[in-house]
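Dear colleague,

Thank you for sharing your sequence with our group. We've completed the structure prediction you requested, and as agreed, I am returning the results in plain text so they can be pasted directly into your records. Please verify that the sequence below matches your submission; if there's any discrepancy, let me know and we will rerun it promptly.
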Amino acid sequence: CVPGPNKLAGSVDQDGSVAGFWLGIWQGIITPVTFVISLFSDDVHIYEVHNSGGWYNAGFLLGVSIIFGGSGGGAARKRRRRRRRD
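Please find the predicted structure tokens below.
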């Protein structure tokens, strides 16, 4: 059901760097654009496999939630609207 371990986590890429928390946020933010490009190009992927592990994952998820509004603001607005009706 769940993906297996990333054997490349913690290893450097061809530039000698490992993607960390901040790059994870950025790559999470640009995921919608990157996804569309990845459909037409084999050289573009939406997730960096040469990453720092949990911190990159946390940054990536935070970036994705920033773009798709995962802050819970929608639930708060719904609650406020419901209170106004009562």
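Summary note from our side: The radius of gyration is 17 Å.

Kind regards,
the structure core
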